[in-house]
């Protein structure tokens, strides 16, 4: 409920800005046109994951993954890291946050392990792992256009070195933090039978078809909505009681809507101008670090997408745009609202009864985010 209250307050603040003329109606309509596909995707993909979880799909995936770890917690953790990295690179950070989080939580519980290092690995890599390809992050798609539309391979060639660093650094921090539990062993646990094989098969087919459709070039809300409709229809026939209003992430939708509107109002009063002045100019290593760290600060203050849009005009070159992407992609690990993926991840954890205090998340992020951004930017400067 606290999430909804904060979102409602932000909506009211944004509405007041629009009512008194700070935010013109054209800007509000342009904002709505930009964000409604994102919000619809969030709503639909959340329904898909809730229904797939109810059908036992994630439990079965977790059971099979646990076997591959062969009882070694560190091996299981590295498998999770690999899945999170590949999912983020090819399916986008938001998809990783929604689809992989329930898998890793069930996996850890099934193996008798602490779910927090696995959950933290998922959300950190969902952000830091989104540097390599244009499809990995919406900011990358925007930057690809600003760079002159290089091919995905050319884009990846420029971003490869910082992308590797941005993946390795958070993993190293997590291993140091949780080394005792990760160096232990686990039991695979007993196999859990699927209650309804028909629901399970439908869920497996729908999610299996959804994954490639999310990278097919279609707007991602389309396959997500289609998958939610199909699974909803199957559950209506097989297990109607699962279908309830609680499946809809309405609190998250309210918060995201309020955040977008409030940030747009801040743009109208000159936020972008301030950020551009702070970011400086030039392509020396220090200049690139200044821009990347400004992007990181902006992302954690106002969310990574508006931070990118505010700073894009001051980037001015492909190399500086790459540094900006490091800041807004690998840097939003401190505040809960720094990226939509983080909010989606936390919503999935809450729905599964896993608690992580935001204070602890902020403290850990304040350590790993600057370290990741600085080392990744230096890697970019080194190979430029």
Secondary structure class reads mainly alpha
Coarse shape: globular
Q: How many distinct folded domains?
A: 1
Cα separation of the termini = 47 Å
Kindly state the percentage of residues in helix: over 70%
**Percent range for β-strand residues:** under 5%
> Largest sheet, described in full?
none
**SSE run:** HHHHHHHHHHHHHHHHHH
Give the low-pLDDT segments.
Answer: none
Summed up, the helix count is 18
Domain Citrate transporter-like: 5-325
Pfam family, one: CitMHS
Subcellular location: Cell membrane
GO cellular component, one term: plasma membrane
Please outline what is shown here.
Keywords: Arsenical resistance, Cell membrane, Membrane, Transmembrane, Transmembrane helix, Transport. The chain has 18 helices and no strands. It is mainly α and 384 residues long.
Structural account:
With 384 residues, this protein is mostly helical. It has one domain. It has helices at residues 2-19, 25-54, 57-68, 73-91, 93-110, 115-128, 138-146, 152-177, 179-182, 197-213, 221-238, 250-268, 271-279, 285-302, 304-315, 318-330, 340-351, 358-383. The N and C termini lie far apart (47 Å). The mean pLDDT is 88.
Describe the protein's topology.
Layout: H1 2-19, H2 25-54, H3 57-68, H4 73-91, H5 93-110, H6 115-128, H7 138-146, H8 152-177, H9 179-182, H10 197-213, H11 221-238, H12 250-268, H13 271-279, H14 285-302, H15 304-315, H16 318-330, H17 340-351, H18 358-383
Helix pairs in contact: 1-12, 2-5, 2-11, 2-12, 3-5, 4-5, 4-6, 5-6, 5-17, 6-8, 6-17, 7-15, 7-16, 8-16, 8-18, 10-11, 13-15, 14-15, 14-16, 14-18, 15-16, 16-18
């Amino acid at each position: 409920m606290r999430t909804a209250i904060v979102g409602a307050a932000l909506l009211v603040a944004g509405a007041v800005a629009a009512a008194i003329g700070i935010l013109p109606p054209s800007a509000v309509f342009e904002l709505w046109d930009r964000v409604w596909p994102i919000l619809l995707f969030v709503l639909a993909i959340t329904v898909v994951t809730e229904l797939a979880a109810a059908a036992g799909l994630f439990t079965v995936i977790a059971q099979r993954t646990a076997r591959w770890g062969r009882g070694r917690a560190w091996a299981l953790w590295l498998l999770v890291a690999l899945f999170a990295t590949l999912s983020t690179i090819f399916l986008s950070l938001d998809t990783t946050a929604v689809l992989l989080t329930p898998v890793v939580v069930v996996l850890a519980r099934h193996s008798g392990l602490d779910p927090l290092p696995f959950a933290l690995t998922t959300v950190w890599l969902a952000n830091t792992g989104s540097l390599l390809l244009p499809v990995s992050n919406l900011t990358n798609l925007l930057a690809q256009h600003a760079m002159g539309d290089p091919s995905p391979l050319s884009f990846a060639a420029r971003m490869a070195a910082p992308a590797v660093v941005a993946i390795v650094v958070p993993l190293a921090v997590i291993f140091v933090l949780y080394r005792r539990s990760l160096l232990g062993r686990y039991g695979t646990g007993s196999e859990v039978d699927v209650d309804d094989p028909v629901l399970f098969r439908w869920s497996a087919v729908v999610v299996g078809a959804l994954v490639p459709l999310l990278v097919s070039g279609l707007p991602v809300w389309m396959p997500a909505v289609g998958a939610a409709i199909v699974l909803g229809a199957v559950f209506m026939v097989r297990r109607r009681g699962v279908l309830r209003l609680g499946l809809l992430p309405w609190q998250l939708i309210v918060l995201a809507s309020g955040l977008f509107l409030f940030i747009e109002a801040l743009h109208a009063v000159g936020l972008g101008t301030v950020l551009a002045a702070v970011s400086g100019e030039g392509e020396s290593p220090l200049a690139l670090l200044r821009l990347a760290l400004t992007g990181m600060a902006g992302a954690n203050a106002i969310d990574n997408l508006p931070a990118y849009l505010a700073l894009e005009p001051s980037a001015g070159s492909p190399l500086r745009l790459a540094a900006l992407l490091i800041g807004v992609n690998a840097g939003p690990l401190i505040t809960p609202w720094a990226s939509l993926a983080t909010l989606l991840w936390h919503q999935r954890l809450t729905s599964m009864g896993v608690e992580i205090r935001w204070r602890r998340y902020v403290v850990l992020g304040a350590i790993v985010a600057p370290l990741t951004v600085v080392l990744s930017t230096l890697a970019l400067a080194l190979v430029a």
